[in-house]
Design goal:
Organism: Proteus mirabilis
Keywords: ATP-binding, Helicase, Hydrolase, Nucleotide-binding
Structural class: mainly alpha
EC number: 3.6.4.12
Oligomer: single chain
InterPro entries: Helic_SF1/SF2_ATP-bd_DinG/Rad3, P-loop_NTPase
Protein name: ATP-dependent helicase
Number of helices: 3
Largest sheet: none
Radius of gyration: 18 Å
Strand content: under 5%
Length: 79
């Protein structure tokens, strides 16, 4: 675990080290904005620099996805 202040680029060295060691890595952020920044800006930089050919995934909490039961219920009310 790294203990550094905000905006110090903690995920970059962690991801690079884990790549070199062949480890799977999970990074948890304090906000969705940081998660999006890491996935759309920082991670592509690391992937290119290390010539990474594996897979990556962006996972968000349940509240960020559509509940089909609620959708069907709301849709039925509007008909």
């Amino acid at each position: 675990m790294q203990k550094r202040g905000p905006g110090q680029g903690k995920p970059m060295p962690i991801l690079c080290l884990h790549y070199v060691l062949g480890k799977k890595t999970i990074i948890s952020t304090g906000s969705k904005a940081l998660q999006d920044q890491l996935y759309s800006r920082d991670l592509p930089t690391i992937i290119e620099a290390l010539d990474y050919d594996g897979t990556t995934a962006l996972l968000k909490g349940r509240s960020n996805y559509l509940c089909f039961r609620t959708f069907r219920s709301a849709n039925a009310q509007w008909r």
